[in-house]
Amino acid sequence: MEHDKDIQTTQRGFHCNLCIVNIPNKPSLDDHVKGKKHQHLLRLRAQRKAQEENSVFVSGFKPDTSQTDLKEYFAQFGPVSDVIMDKHKGVYAIVEFSEPQNAQAVLAQLEHQLDGLKLRVKPRERKEFKLATRGKQDSKNTQISLDRLNNELLKATSVNEQMQKVVDSFELKENEKKVRDLLVQLLQEVFTEFFPDCQIVPFGSSVNTFGIHSCDLDLFLDLENTKAFQACAKSSEATGENQSEDCHSEDSILSDIDLSTASPAEVLELVAVILRKCVPGVHKVQTLSTARLPVVKFSHRELNLHGDITINNRLAVRNTRFLQLCSGIDSRLRPLVYTIRLWAKQKQLAGNLSGPGPLLNNYALTLLVIFYLQNRDPPVLPSVNHLKNMACEEEECVIEEWDCTFPSQPFIVPSSKNTEDLCTLLFGFFTFYSKFDFSASVVCLRDGHVLPITDFLRRDEEAVDTAEASGPKPKRSSAPKLGPMNVLDPFEQNHNVAGNLNERTQKNFKRECCEAEKYCRSLQYQRKSTKGKSWGLVRLFAPLSEAGPRSQVETEKIMEVSIPFKAAVLPEPLRAQLALAGKSFRSIWFAKICSAVHTVFHEILKCSPLEETQTVAATTQDKAETEGNEMEVNNNQSVEDSGSQAKSETGKKRPLTVDEEEEEGPSTSTVIEAKRQRLDADMEHPEPVHWTWSQGNRVWAGRRKVRRDLLKTSDETSKPEGGCIDIESRVTQSIVEKEEKLQELLEFKVDAEVVGGNQSTKVVLRFHPSHDTTGVFQDFFHFLESFLPKMAETILGRAGS
Ligand code: ATP
Ligand code: MG
């Protein structure tokens, strides 16, 4: 088969050279080669091959020769389907015929002449068909500098020295900074012509001390003073006074636009026109007015720079100052950030290549490093709240209602008592995040510690209440967008800077941290090889493809399916319930998932129960729900009595507290509190649940087709697999009625447990078939791997509606 040569067997599965993807196992490989992408690329390759065989490469004609002239000349050999001229017309052309024999006929003729000139005719060059990957050039350049860097790293004597070398080879050098300054100056001059008193302020990696050679130039066009200027000019006009000196009387673009009422898109359009027409060397100007922060992108030809101009980005200028400050407070931050950025890039975890994507951006990654350093023992960096307390009055700063106060100078901040070296701190970073419960925690640099996600489910509720009660919502009251990874911006406290990440990126980040952590434990990381082998950072920076596809082998062997806790997709009533549950939220959620999983096996896939401890789940749920109700009552009291809120030993707010000293003897609240504490302990680690099921049909086979047929004859709108309970039950029913039964009943056990705390919160389901000599259960399991989590999510959503 043709795809055989495209598929390569690797240590951890397969690799498709055509689509450039890793595939973990045979069933996925079969799906992959039948899939849309692979099939599309096969067709495209066949089409390109035919085009190559049907065409010839022609040069030597006059510069003014047209496509029609060439078409007419070559038509004598057969019908010409296309003539493609090169960009700078007149150098070469590709003449394409409808049949390969026409091209052969052209090549067979020894001499060709057009307008008295001898044409050179060659077979068309055969290019290897390769998927054009975005940022190919970029990764090629990185690879070259990485190869050079690796040579340098091998010469170092310690990991500490290696990390310093990473900084040396990537950081922006003085001359590069000067070039950037010059461009800023030039833009300042040009823009001042059009927007009197405006300011061009650089921010981002060019100035935050973490810049690398190729980083973009982020600029903020501050029009505050220009607005004041325009207002002043307008009022003088209205009163008929002569324009004062202060209001600069020269003509400007401001007669065309009213900055107090113009939309950001209108202003940026103007900025784009100025860039295009008035700034020498600028090209590729593009306005993205629908981005979260509308922006004009541009490049500078001679300086080989890419830039961004935004107009409403004061917070970014301020957070840039914050990063600069952190660098100044502790010199270990820079080498750590440079090293971790490079590691993350190599592992395809960070650096979205063309604009927004599901990977971490460099800002979010840097915040993760700072947060880790705030959590070292003793801390390397202080929390943002601590920094705020060190600032003086003049340093107070509020932007868009957010408190952005911190000292302007690093020497105000006392030196850290932490003396760990870079090698240890890097190892610690991987350990910290390999054990991090991303699903249930929120990274908060403001407080310098983790906040439970339940706090944010509640905040969301409160935000809704506030909005309902008092009309328009104040900016601060809206909740952050919760996702698989939650990193609060240190200033804009309802902005999740990792809100763009998807489940897969979060998992990959964690998995790579685990792998790096494992490697850092080895001697190869810590000690220079005496035999010239790669050691230290060199192995850490091995790109993903070299290290092989991400390991799925272990999960396959154990037959395990995980259902992650996804705060973002929980139905509203459940969010409210979990928000009040404190530490017990895992138990309540676990009970809901168990009930959903039971529904999937019993009602949707029509499995028969042989034995179950569903009662355990039911009891857990009952307990949790009853307690949730009690808590709700009591929590309302404690919310009103806000002064009585205390802190637990980890510094987390406890939703339920009473001022015990006020009461003589145990009050009702104290009893509830005591009961809750007991329950908390139980509920933090609820008992696992077990079921044994049997299945007599191949309910997994051919579901897509059955679903399609069913949808054709029903009014239901199309839903993806696992998206609708009713349709999926009917699909199973139809298979059970129409298809042959399995020769032997499938019997299997399922153990379910909830994990979290020092790993991502999730329900883990382990499958144990009683016997599976024919591999039938393996097929069923592969189906369940994707079906079960999707279906459970749908059922949970339904429960909330
Ligand atoms: P690089 O350009 O090298 O990838 P960078 O730090 O300049 O790194 P950009 O994506 O260009 O990253 O962003 C520029 C600046 O804008 C950041 O340094 C940060 O100050 C701010 N910024 C970027 N993303 C966010 C975000 N999600 N939330 C808040 N501020 C952000
Ligand atoms: Mg940048």
UniProtKB/TrEMBL annotation:
<dbReference type="InterPro" id="IPR002058">
    <property type="entry name" value="PAP_assoc"/>
</dbReference>
<dbReference type="InterPro" id="IPR035979">
    <property type="entry name" value="RBD_domain_sf"/>
</dbReference>
<dbReference type="GO" id="GO:0016607">
    <property type="term" value="C:nuclear speck"/>
</dbReference>
<dbReference type="InterPro" id="IPR003604">
    <property type="entry name" value="Matrin/U1-like-C_Znf_C2H2"/>
</dbReference>
<dbReference type="InterPro" id="IPR012677">
    <property type="entry name" value="Nucleotide-bd_a/b_plait_sf"/>
</dbReference>
<feature type="domain" description="RRM">
    <location>
        <begin position="54"/>
        <end position="126"/>
    </location>
</feature>
<dbReference type="GO" id="GO:1990817">
    <property type="term" value="F:poly(A) RNA polymerase activity"/>
</dbReference>
<dbReference type="InterPro" id="IPR000504">
    <property type="entry name" value="RRM_dom"/>
</dbReference>
<feature type="compositionally biased region" description="Polar residues">
    <location>
        <begin position="632"/>
        <end position="648"/>
    </location>
</feature>
<dbReference type="InterPro" id="IPR043519">
    <property type="entry name" value="NT_sf"/>
</dbReference>
<feature type="region of interest" description="Disordered">
    <location>
        <begin position="618"/>
        <end position="671"/>
    </location>
</feature>
<dbReference type="GO" id="GO:0050265">
    <property type="term" value="F:RNA uridylyltransferase activity"/>
</dbReference>
<keyword id="KW-0548">Nucleotidyltransferase</keyword>
<keyword id="KW-0479">Metal-binding</keyword>
<keyword id="KW-0460">Magnesium</keyword>
<keyword id="KW-0694">RNA-binding</keyword>
<dbReference type="Pfam" id="PF00076">
    <property type="entry name" value="RRM_1"/>
</dbReference>
<protein>
    <recommendedName>
        <fullName>Speckle targeted PIP5K1A-regulated poly(A) polymerase</fullName>
        <ecNumber>2.7.7.52</ecNumber>
    </recommendedName>
</protein>
<dbReference type="GO" id="GO:0031123">
    <property type="term" value="P:RNA 3'-end processing"/>
</dbReference>
<dbReference type="InterPro" id="IPR054708">
    <property type="entry name" value="MTPAP-like_central"/>
</dbReference>
<keyword id="KW-0808">Transferase</keyword>
<dbReference type="Pfam" id="PF22600">
    <property type="entry name" value="MTPAP-like_central"/>
</dbReference>
<dbReference type="GO" id="GO:0003723">
    <property type="term" value="F:RNA binding"/>
</dbReference>
<dbReference type="GO" id="GO:0008270">
    <property type="term" value="F:zinc ion binding"/>
</dbReference>
<dbReference type="Pfam" id="PF03828">
    <property type="entry name" value="PAP_assoc"/>
</dbReference>
